[in-house]
Write a structure and sequence with these properties.
This protein is an alpha+beta fold. The protein has one domain. It has four helices and four strands, in the order ααβαβαββ. A four-stranded antiparallel β-sheet has the order 1-2-3-4, with helices on one face. A hairpin with an 8-residue loop joins β3 and β4. α1 runs antiparallel to α3. The N and C termini lie far apart (91 Å).
Length: 170
């Protein structure tokens, strides 16, 4: 019975240590959940960028005369406006596609996201005539598409610009 006085409060100390260990574990789990949420947002934005880029490439493939004439070249979002509900010539269709793509950039990507398309016929052995362009020949030049957006990496850190660059032949 002499030791009974020394054991008072030991259970309370054990409980406090257990609560401390449990709290540290919860803080770690909360940090992992926050990191997972940021990673999900990053993956979402990259998926949107890929979808938007593929969408514009398909638009360009459907209007090769517009690509040959350089009507898709430029910086986006832009303020072009063209209604093609009644049909369009290749240049008008390119302006309509630019308008639609600019709208997608504004809708699906963070503010201040920008894009650039540059198509060149450099290196071609034969540049088609205007009549050949209207016959929709295959485009032998190269196009470069670059999409840039700002993505937050870590809480309280400086947001980092991300870039998607793609070189293709429509």
């Amino acid at each position: 019975m002499a030791f009974a006085g020394y054991q008072r409060g030991v259970t309370l100390i054990e409980i406090l240590v257990a609560v401390l260990v449990f709290s540290i574990g919860l803080l770690g789990a909360a940090g992992l959940m926050a990191m997972a949420a940021r990673s999900d947002q990053s993956a979402y934005l990259r998926t949107q960028v890929t979808f938007i880029a593929q969408n514009m490439v398909e638009r360009m493939q459907a209007n090769l005369p517009g690509v040959w004439n350089g009507d898709y070249n430029g910086t986006f979002p832009d303020a072009s406006a063209q209604d093609c509900s009644g049909g369009c010539a290749p240049r008008q269709l390119a302006l309509h596609d630019r308008q639609q793509w600019s709208s997608q950039l504004k809708t699906f990507l963070p503010p201040r996201a920008t894009a650039r398309i540059e198509c060149t016929a450099a290196g071609l052995s034969h540049v088609p005539t205007r009549e050949q362009i209207l016959l929709r020949p295959p485009y032998g030049g190269n196009c470069t598409m670059t999409i840039t957006w700002i993505e937050r990496q870590v809480v309280d850190a400086k947001p980092l610009p991300q870039t998607f660059a793609w070189e293709f032949q429509p």
